[in-house]
């Protein structure tokens, strides 16, 4: 049986453009499941699926009775965190009120990061949680570990190295698409309509940038490690 492809879509890593441009050109809609929670996923007809996409943590393969292959896209952690905040903040609640819109309108990035410890054990995945990329790849069971946990980083590195068949780097998008396409045997891609993007971002203070770096030390180390793997493999 063909392995089920699991796309770990980390917020603000160009995952939506990748899905619409590459994945949609190679997987029919009826073969794809957009993850919206474990209960609905377990009720799905998994036998007909070829691809699962969504904001889910590593580990979904444990409830699938067939082989699985993972892929993901990573991004420079500082740029990702800044983009995440202003993307949510600039949303129009009259069109769609993001679950964290009020949070990001009320607080600055460093203020959100200062209180984000309590969100690690909550269900929401869109909050500006520290080291979010590391937490996604480490898996749900590691979600509540502290932001300086070496175990958290080791798990993320191990999964990226051993469980992800291939992955992309947002800053190397063209090379990433080529490597992923070669790995998974994809034939091509299609034009992508312009996606909702983050508008001009205000200049951030040194204190805010320092707070982002302080809260994303594991992500920065994971990203450097991923770049090394990418250069050797892509």
3D architecture notes:
This protein is 44% helix and 11% strand. By secondary structure, it is an alpha/beta fold. A five-stranded parallel beta sheet has the order 2-3-1-4-5. Strand 2, helix 2 (38-43) and strand 3 (51-54) form a beta-alpha-beta unit. Helix 5 (109-115) runs parallel beside helix 9 (206-215), helix 6 packs across helix 7 and helix 7 packs parallel to helix 10. The longest helix has 17 residues, at 217-233. The model has no long low-confidence stretch (mean pLDDT 89).
| Order of neighbouring strands in the sheet with most strands | 2-3-1-4-5
Major beta sheet summary: 5 strands, parallel
- Uncertain stretches: none
Shape by Cα distribution: globular
Count, helices: 10
Compute the separation of the termini in Å: 27 Å
C-alpha Rg, in Å? Answer: 17 Å
Layout of SSEs?
Blueprint: E1 4-8, H1 15-26, E2 32-34, H2 38-43, E3 51-54, E4 68-74, H3 77-89, H4 101-106, H5 109-115, H6 132-138, H7 150-162, E5 164-169, H8 173-184, H9 206-215, H10 217-233
Keywords, separated by commas or semicolons:
single chain, globular, 5-stranded parallel β-sheet, alpha/beta, 234 residues, 10 helices
Task: Briefly summarize what is shown.
The protein is of the alpha/beta class.
């Amino acid at each position: 049986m063909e392995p089920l492809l699991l796309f770990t879509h980390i917020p603000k890593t160009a995952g939506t453009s990748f899905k619409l441009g590459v994945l949609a050109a190679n997987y029919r809609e009826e073969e794809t499941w957009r993850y919206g929670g474990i209960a609905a996923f377990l009720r799905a007809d998994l036998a007909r699926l070829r691809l699962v996409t969504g904001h889910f943590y590593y580990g979904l393969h444990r409830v699938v009775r067939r082989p699985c292959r993972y892929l993901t896209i990573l991004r420079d952690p500082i740029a990702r965190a800044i983009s995440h905040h202003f993307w949510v903040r600039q949303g129009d609640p009259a069109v769609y009120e993001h679950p964290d819109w009020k949070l990001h309108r009320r607080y600055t990035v460093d203020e959100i990061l200062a209180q984000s410890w309590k969100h690690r054990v909550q269900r929401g995945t869109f909050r500006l949680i520290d080291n979010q990329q590391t937490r996604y790849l480490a898996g749900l069971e590691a979600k509540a570990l502290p932001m300086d946990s070496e175990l958290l980083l080791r798990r993320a590195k191990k999964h990226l190295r051993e469980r992800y068949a291939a992955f992309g780097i947002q800053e190397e998008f063209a090379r990433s698409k080529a490597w992923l396409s070669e790995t998974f045997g994809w034939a091509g891609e299609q034009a992508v309509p312009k996606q909702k993007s983050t508008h001009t971002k205000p200049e951030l203070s040194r204190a805010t940038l320092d707070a982002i770096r302080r809260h994303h030390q594991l992500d920065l180390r994971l990203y450097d490690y991923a770049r090394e793997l990418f250069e050797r493999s892509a």
